[in-house]
Design goal:
The chain has 405 residues and is mainly β. The chain contains no helices and 30 strands. It has strands spanning 46-47, 54-55, 61-62, 84-89, 94-100, 111-116, 123-128, 136-141, 148-155, 165-171, 174-180, 190-197, 204-207, 215-219, 222-229, 235-242, 248-249, 256-258, 265-267, 278-281, 291-296, 303-309, 320-327, 330-336, 342-349, 355-361, 364-369, 372-378, 386-391, 397-403. The strands form six sheets. Strands 17-20-29-22-23-24-25 form a seven-stranded antiparallel sheet, with no helix packed on it. The protein has a seven-stranded antiparallel sheet with strand order 18-19-30-21-26-27-28, with no helix packed on it. Strands 1-4-9-6-7 form a five-stranded mixed sheet, with no helix packed on it. Strand 26 and strand 27 form a beta hairpin. The protein is elongated and about 90 Å long.
Length: 405
């Protein structure tokens, strides 16, 4: 058993007895105390943020020996109670929650699930079983990125007969995409294919061009909006940019291999050393008005830099005045000011598939993750920029580096 809400410094008492107080049942026992509240209570909710876009192990959680805590979901039978609590930090405005009970995933019967705001009492969504061992699968939009949300799971009546294990899956309905950027000799050669992920097919598409197909072609450089609706009527809007192919030059000998798409980079030497995998571009930016460089995170737990530099390339990326530095999934903005001083700020964390961008708009430099501004700074006047990348880890990939210039 567990009990939250105690007052620190106060004295509490525990009494122990046996059935009927009978002398026949009396005996010795061991007493254990722990001050950690588990997920039987809201205060001990398990943080499952790391499960987003994946699932827990089968049978990872259970309502066996659970007790009732707080208000049950509005769609639950309120007799009894045996709920468990989970929490996550929203990294999107939408979440899909699935509780798996059938087959090898778990044994809970007639499950209930509810989604709550950070106070644990404001209900945002509620779903219940359709059959004895049915999985529960639903989504909720309108979340606020960075806010914490809670999930409670119970079974019908809180009955011990129906209690059991379950698997929990979280996912964000998002739009991946494939972009063919414009080649120097073909101004209208851009194209985009939208790829829905973690939604319920079939999907419908509406592009800012008026197209209702999953892909659009014959595009010039610029931004394009697509609205995708899945079978559950969950709607996702995504802005996708068509840029210009990067002309990589001066790769450090033996350090970086330029991949066939002319946008991805692979460090090929056998040393984990800065400066052994550096490359620059001849793409030249002569104005600081509304231009950008972005790339997609291709691997986890590697170290690399992508930025804009006053020189085409240097061995250690030291000339990159504005750059995104990723170190084992932690994202930093690194700048060199007019006096040559390095300024390094942690601005977030990244995972595979995330899109990171440096955006220049007038006198402002924005650092973005998946279209969300993490940091804005003022730039100082420079006449020309090039694109530069430096990779630290052997056989590491920096994926799909793209630019508007």
């Amino acid at each position: 058993m567990s009990k939250p809400g105690l007052t620190i410094g106060s004295t509490y008492y525990i009494s122990v007895d046996n059935h009927n107080g009978s002398a026949s049942y009396r005996g010795t026992f061991q007493l254990c105390l722990s001050d950690a509240v588990d997920y039987d209570f809201f205060e001990g909710a398990i943080d499952v943020s790391s499960l987003i876009d994946t699932c827990s192990a089968a049978n990872a959680y259970t309502t066996v020996q659970a007790t009732s805590d707080r208000t049950p979901g509005s769609c639950w039978n309120t007799i009894g109670g045996s709920n468990r609590w989970f929490k996550f930090v929203a990294s999107s405005d939408q979440i899909r929650i699935e509780v798996k009970t059938a087959g090898s995933a778990g044994s809970i019967q007639y499950p209930y699930v509810a989604l709550w705001a950070a106070d644990g009492s404001t209900q945002l969504a509620c779903q219940k079983y359709t059959t004895q061992y049915s999985n529960i699968n639903f989504s909720k939009t309108g979340l606020t990125i960075g806010n914490t949300y809670y999930i409670s799971v119970d079974n019908h009546n809180g009955s011990a007969t129906y209690r059991g294990t379950f698997q929990l899956c979280l996912s964000e309905f998002r739009i991946d995409y494939l972009v063919n950027d414009i080649t120097p000799t073909l101004p209208g050669s851009g194209s985009i294919s939208a790829i829905p992920v973690n939604g319920l097919p079939p999907y419908t598409y509406i592009w800012s061009t008026g197209s209702t197909q999953s892909n659009i072609t014959g595009l010039s450089a610029g931004k394009y909006l697509v609205t995708v609706t899945d079978a559950s009527q969950t709607i996702k809007n995504t802005i996708i940019y068509v840029g210009k192919q990067i002309n990589w030059i001066s790769p450090n000998a033996g350090g970086i291999a330029i991949q066939p798409d002319n946008q991805s980079l692979l460090k090929t030497d056998n040393q984990n050393i800065w400066g052994t995998g550096t490359v620059g571009s001849s793409n030249s930016l002569n104005t600081l008005d509304s231009n950008w460089v972005e790339f997609k995170v291709a691997q986890k737990n590697i170290n690399y830099v992508v930025g804009i530099a006053t020189n085409i390339t240097d061995p250690a990326s030291l000339s990159a005045n504005y750059k995104i530095f990723v170190e084992n999934n932690i994202v930093f903005a690194v700048e060199i000011d007019q006096d040559g001083n390095f300024i390094k700020k942690q601005i977030g964390t990244s995972k595979k598939g995330d899109v990171l961008r440096i955006e220049l708009t007038g006198s402002t430099i924005n650092y973005l993750l998946n279209g969300r501004i993490l940091l804005s700074t003022e730039n100082f006047p420079l006449t020309q920029f090039y694109i530069e990348s430096d990779i630290y880890n052997t056989n590491a990939i920096v994926g799909n580096v793209r630019s508007s210039f």
